[in-house]
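Lab meeting, item 3. Inverse folding demo.
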């Protein structure tokens, strides 16, 4: 939760009633953040006088917003020892995570404490009417289980575009019709509730910013890796939706390595074809990575194979170095500063740039830095990169003798001795994002490691496009697949990204994973409810 905002007079003294409302809201925000407080603690934190604090405590108690929840101090008696807290059941909230394959719901009190939660699968062959009824019925049962009389606010996270003018879910091809019908049905069945809807990836980013892996950042990008792909963009602390609400539709991004180009109505041929759940599961099959039989299909299968590969890599790393669960590669630094990690285990890593002597990083180096111009490809023996200044596009991972040129930028050449023919982009240019070097110093390396390297190459393609335009400084890998990959996959993506971009960018796993959507929907609902209940009157 953001810190309490102190109202500033635009040019004239506040009326007594407005001043009281502002003080009340400030106190409520503090109670939200800090938990129960005594009147003395409220005085200290707000800077208000003792009589003013006494008055606001009385007003908030009479209005039913706060109550005595206990006593503080060694003696625990007397009016000064009373602890005041927000009345949690003053309002009840619901949050929904709407997916193509089902719905999850949580019902909470005004403080966000979970009172009930439930989910229901909805098959592809379910009609629109029955699907809507299943989802609405799930919410009604959860509300009843929570013991709530009614809902104040409902927050919904769903895939697709949100119209920035109306706040409504737009009709999107490829998404079930019941998604759009659900919002109207909930409003009809819950007439006293305020129903809000937001793109699922945007809500996950909100949750990561408040409670997850971006709490220390006001600019970052969340790359969502679920059944499909998406991205949320937060710049200078604000979520950016774009003119039509479509910021982050990265599944439509044209990338090399696909069979064609995406269209206005179908993201097949775009980044989705490389990083969607189905594509990841197919890539795992090519590398012989198999998840447990309980992994299921679709999204669960993709997350399952990634989790299995990470477990395999972690086991191998632990055998080689006790206590290690991922390769902590040395940092690479070039023009513009540090540019992320380079996987250890790259013997004879040679990097050269204009005005800098060539250096070699031993395979067992504990973390020396390597300077670069266009980037260093991770974990590849005999890699040599040359360039001057800022090489555009860097080095394409896995492309033997691939040369990258850009107008106004230096040209770099890299040789990675990758096996097999490179795939063709739509324009015929050769790229290889999935291949591994045949002269691997560890020829018996397990398929899990090679699969993760290939997947990291694919993810880096999408991330590099975002980084080149936005320079976010940090990219989070979210969704169920990002959660399954954890730090092991994130480190590989960061190393590949540093090879393609001169812009220093950290890649981190999200802290909330697939649960971020539901948590973000709850935060949205809670913010809206508190803004209404705690708001001072307009002047």
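The presenter then showed the designed sequence:
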């Amino acid at each position: 939760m953001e810190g309490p905002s102190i109202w500033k007079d635009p040019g004239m003294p506040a009326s007594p009633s407005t001043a009281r409302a502002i003080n009340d809201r400030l106190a409520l925000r503090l109670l939200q953040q800090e938990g129960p407080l005594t009147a003395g603690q409220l005085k200290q934190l707000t800077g208000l006088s003792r009589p003013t604090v006494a008055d606001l405590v009385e007003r908030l108690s009479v209005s039913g917003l706060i109550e005595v929840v206990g006593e503080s101090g060694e003696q625990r008696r007397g009016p000064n020892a009373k602890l005041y807290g927000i009345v949690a059941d003053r309002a009840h909230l619901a949050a929904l995570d709407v997916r193509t394959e089902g719905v999850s719901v949580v019902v909470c009190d005004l403080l966000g404490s979970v009172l009930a939660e439930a989910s229901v699968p909805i098959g592809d062959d379910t009609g629109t009417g029955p699907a809507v009824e299943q989802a609405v019925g799930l919410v009604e049962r959860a509300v009843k289980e929570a013991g709530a009389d009614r809902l104040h606010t409902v927050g919904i996270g769903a895939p697709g575009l949100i119209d920035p003018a109306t706040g409504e879910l737009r009709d999107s091809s490829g998404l079930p019709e019941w998604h759009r019908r659900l919002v109207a049905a909930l409003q009809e069945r819950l007439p006293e509730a305020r129903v809000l809807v937001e793109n699922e990836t945007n809500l996950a980013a909100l949750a990561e910013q408040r409670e997850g892996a971006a709490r220390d950042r006001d600019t970052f990008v969340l790359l969502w890796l679920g059944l499909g792909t998406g991205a949320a963009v937060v710049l200078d602390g604000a979520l950016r939706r774009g003119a039509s609400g479509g910021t982050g539709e990265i599944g439509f991004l044209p990338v090399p390595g696909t069979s064609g180009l995406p269209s206005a109505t179908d993201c097949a041929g775009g980044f989705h074809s490389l990083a969607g759940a189905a594509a990841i599961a197919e890539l795992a099959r090519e590398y012989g990575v198999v998840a447990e039989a309980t992994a299921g299909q679709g999204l669960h299968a993709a997350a399952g194979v990634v989790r299995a590969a990470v477990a395999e890599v972690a086991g191998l790393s632990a055998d080689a170095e006790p206590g290690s669960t991922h390769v902590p590669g040395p940092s690479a630094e070039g023009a513009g500063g540090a540019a992320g990690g380079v996987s250890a285990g790259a013997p004879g890593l040679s990097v050269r740039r204009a005005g800098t002597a060539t250096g070699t990083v031993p395979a067992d180096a504990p973390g020396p830095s390597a300077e670069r111009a266009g980037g260093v490809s991770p974990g590849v023996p005999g890699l040599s990169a040359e360039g001057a200044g800022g090489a555009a596009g860097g080095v394409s991972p896995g492309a033997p003798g691939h040369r990258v040129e850009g107008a106004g930028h230096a040209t770099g050449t890299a040789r990675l001795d990758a096996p097999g023919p490179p795939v063709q982009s739509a324009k015929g240019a050769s790229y290889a994002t999935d291949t591994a070097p045949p002269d691997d110093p560890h020829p018996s390396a397990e398929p899990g490691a090679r699969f993760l390297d290939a997947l990291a190459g694919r993810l880096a393609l999408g991330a590099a496009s975002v980084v080149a335009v936005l320079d976010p400084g940090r990219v989070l890998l979210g969704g169920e697949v990002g959660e399954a990959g954890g730090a092991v996959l994130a480190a590989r993506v960061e190393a590949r990204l540093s090879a393609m971009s001169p812009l220093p960018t950290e890649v981190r796993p999200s802290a909330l994973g697939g649960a971020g959507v539901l948590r973000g929907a709850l935060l949205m609902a809670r913010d809206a409810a508190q803004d209404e209940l705690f708001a001072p009157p307009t002047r």
